[in-house]
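Lab channel / #folding
Pinned by the channel admin:
"Please post every new chain as: sequence first, then the structure tokens as a reply. Keep commentary short and put observations after the output so the thread stays searchable."

First post following the new format, from NK:
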Amino acid sequence: MAIRKKKADTAAPETLAVPQTGARSHPFYTLASYTPGTPAEFALYRSLREAVPIIDAAISKLVRLLGTFQVNCETASAQTALARFLETVNVGGTRQGIQSFLSTFFEQLLTYGTAVGEMALTNGALTHLYNADLSAVRLCADENPLDVSVCVWNEKGQLTPVPYPQLILKSVHNPEPGRIYGTSLLRGLPFVSDVLLKIINTIGLNWERVGNVRFAVTYNPPNDIVDKAYTKERAAVVADAWRDAMSGSGAVKDFVAVGDVSIKAIGADNQILDSDVPVRQMLEQIVAKLGIPPFLLGLSWSSTERMSTQQADILTSEIDFYRRELNPVIHRICETFLRLAGYPTDVQIEWNDLTLQDITELSRSAYYDAQTKRILNDIDKGGPTA
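Reply from TO:
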């Protein structure tokens, strides 16, 4: 008995109404089709920073506001050797200094929620730091949920753990319970950014249509039979004269016509929608998620001096939180260098103050405290309080 093979249905669906490869509404249309937890999440966040400049500016400012630090060791020789290493360590083959490594590491941590780096050895000494591309590595959970290994693809295309996991540096930002990957600072922004981009894209289209003024020149011929016979020729003369008058040669020209000729601006009666309110609403959502005061991003929203001071204090606490997240990575690097160099591995990290304004406020506070103590001491002694 012969078995008939079912013929494959290769015909296109009859309900296809639009081309499958057609262009989308705006160049960053992937933001509208965002699905959390997919492998394309990292590419989405890169596109998000490219599409919305204020997001990219906020992350860059957080990286610069992170500041610098000092590492204290037990002995003076270890202190000198570690300081020289942190200042001159090779980073990725093109940069030097641990600040360069931490800047990229911290930027990766904020953007993707996960950051991976590596310490490279030369003749048994720590000489290089490397920022890994997250698309080239994977975090894999072991049988024990408390153990997470970094895996790479081998020659056969299989994920295998790295041979020297003790040289790997990894950090995750606010991971959800049961997940090994961290949470990006940009999570929750794709939808809001998509709405913002639609508004901006529509503004550009409206200005292209209405802002670039176009004119409708209408010639109404009289009821005379002779004039009607030469309507086409006279309309061509009017069109040529109007085209010459509106030519972009830089000289102002007059347009003179005989007969019933009317000129109207196309789109002059249409009013472009006011975008200030919806754009500000979207920007408020973005700024609230990023945790950056608006005045640092160039947004001149109404705020008092006291409000700006409070926002700066909140930003200081945010930076302190990020510093605590990076402390384990810095400890690993310093301890590895000291151990391989034969020094004691006990180190202490001291971050510098964020800005000069913070130092001024602390000094003023200490001055007021000292002045208060002196006044109270004079009162107890019965002396002058001036």
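NK: Residues 355-386 form one domain.
TO: also worth noting, The first helix runs from residue 41 to 51.
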